[in-house]
Amino acid sequence: MKTFLSDSLNDLVLGRDGRLATAREIDAFAQSARQYMQARLGEMIHNADQGIPFTAVLWGGTPSVAQFEAAGRVRLMQVPGALAVVSFTARLQGDVIAYDAMVNTQWGEVTING
């Protein structure tokens, strides 16, 4: 797996040579997994059926951590190279939902936080 490297704000990163930097294998998977978890359902015009249903699960009344966890597990398995979601823990911290996930990939195991 190979993808363009992005920073914590999802901005592309330039390498020392002035070209777009890339991430490979497990690093590329980890970055892509975090971005997959940030995508809202309906946000992507060509894949409107993919993403986390934030409105229904979190913003539409009482937040449901269990539904977020279920959606997160499904979403992480959509990342190319994912073999299994080993663990996924979500929790409400005030008005923010946070999660920790461990995913088994074809390059090894990786932990994703958000």
Description of the structure:
This protein is 29% helix and 30% strand. With 114 residues, it is α+β, with helices and mostly antiparallel strands. The chain has one domain (2-113): Nuclear Transport Factor 2, Chain: A (Roll). The strands form two sheets. A three-stranded antiparallel sheet has the order 3-4-5, with helices on one face. The longest helix has 14 residues, at 25-38. The protein starts with a strand and ends with a strand.
Topology:
Elements: E1 2-4, E2 22-24, H1 25-38, H2 54-59, H3 65-77, E3 82-93, E4 96-105, E5 108-113
Supply database-style keywords:
114 residues, alpha+beta, Nuclear Transport Factor 2, Chain: A, two-stranded antiparallel sheet, 3 helices, globular
Report the strand count.
5
Sheet with the most strands: spatial strand order: 3-4-5
The percent range for strand residues is: 25-35%
Task: Tell me the structural class.
Answer: alpha+beta
Q: Any idea what the CATH architecture is?
A: Roll
- Gap between N and C termini: 22 Å
Instruction: Kindly report the CATH topology.
Output: Nuclear Transport Factor 2, Chain: A
> Low-confidence spans: pLDDT under 50, at least 5 residues?
none
Biggest sheet architecture: 3 strands, antiparallel
* The first-level CATH class name: Alpha Beta
Helix fraction? 25-40%
- Domain module count: 1
Determine the number of helices (DSSP H or I, runs of at least 4 residues): 3
Structural shape: globular
Rg calc? 15 Å
Average predicted local confidence, pLDDT: 91
User: Helix-strand pattern, N to C?
Assistant: EEHHHEEE
